[in-house]
Design a protein that fits this description.
Distance between the termini of chain B: 67 Å
Number of strands of chain A: 0
Number of domains of chain A: 1
Radius of gyration of chain B: 20 Å
Structural class of chain B: mainly alpha
Largest interface: A-B, 46 and 55 residues
Oligomer: heterodimer
Distance between the termini of chain A: 64 Å
CATH architecture of the largest domain in chain B: Orthogonal Bundle
Helix content of chain B: 55-70%
Number of helices of chain B: 7
Structural class of chain A: mainly alpha
Chain lengths: 80, 199
């Protein structure tokens, strides 16, 4: 039986690469029985989606603009 | 020659006007530092000018410039990766990167069980959520944050990341795991728990 520590690590790995068959099966059984790891799995998927939307969101960073000093500095440097 | 120079400078001026802010934000989200982001925009425009003759013209100007910027960001990560103290198997010992023992009891059970986040996808409609997410990314150690960016924002495979940064496959696994578990914990305490309290 997997521990939560092992299961959570496998869940993270499975975000990047398919797991070997048996490991996957073991993991599915654990997640089915364990609400904490089941929550963790959902959160990993959510995190991926959220990261994908960072460029589109209306966050403070996404409203940032080049300062006029930086703009001028870059303009000069690129002209040389 | 003079006309060529003035041609390329008006070209770069136009890029700065039309795409400067966009490229700056794109970089800022990934490197979390304004002056680094400014430098990366500058490097990108210089590289673009010297590669102008190779441009096929199939993609839009912005897509083309963004592609160059992406490479510059990877270069930046590689440089800072080398500059930071190397500690092969224990990726970092910064306080922001608690070891896994902080998350799990000795018997392998969660110390703080991940709670249900209800309907988290609704948060994606709130701009403040992305501020919190960025804030949580800043709380990670730089290496973990870089890996997370390459993985989830640049969509790179683990093999590509290993190759680009010269890190072992195991380290990439471990560090991505740490990054995710750290971000999860941070979002839970800074966003989802508050969210619940408000309701």
């Amino acid at each position: 039986m997997l521990t939560c520590k092992e299961a959570s690590r496998l869940l993270s790995q499975s975000m990047d690469q398919p797991l070997p068959h048996l490991k996957r099966l073991e993991l599915r059984v654990h997640v089915w029985l364990c609400s904490a790891c089941s929550n963790f799995e959902k959160q990993l998927l959510f995190l991926r989606r959220a990261a994908h939307q960072l460029d589109e969101g209306d966050s403070q960073t996404n409203q940032a603009r080049l300062s006029s000093e930086a703009r001028e500095r870059i303009r000069k440097a690129v002209r040389q | 020659m003079k006309s060529l120079n003035s041609q390329s400078s008006s070209r770069s001026d136009q890029w700065i006007d039309e795409h400067g802010d966009y490229l700056f934000r794109f970089a800022l989200i990934r490197v979390q530092n304004e002056s680094t982001a400014e430098d990366l925009v500058q490097e990108t425009l210089l590289a673009a000018l010297s590669a102008l003759h190779q441009r096929s013209g199939q993609s839009s100007e912005r897509t083309w410039l963004t592609g160059i910027l992406k490479h510059k960001i990877v270069d930046h990560f590689r440089r800072s990766w080398r500059e930071q103290p190397l500690n092969e198997d224990i990726p970092t010992d910064l306080p922001e990167d608690p070891s896994m023992d902080d998350f799990f009891a000795p018997d392998g059970h969660w110390d703080h069980k991940p709670a249900s986040w209800g309907s988290p996808y609704r948060s994606l409609e709130q701009s403040q959520f992305f501020d919190v997410l960025q804030n949580c990314m800043q709380c990670l150690s730089p290496k973990l944050a870089h890996l997370f960016v390459l993985k989830e924002l640049h969509d790179m495979s683990n093999e590509e990341i290993c190759k680009e940064l010269g890190v072992s496959a195991t380290n990439v696994w471990v560090m991505l795991y740490r990054a995710r578990i750290g971000l999860r914990q941070c979002l839970e305490s800074k966003w989802f728990e508050n969210d619940r309290k408000v309701r």
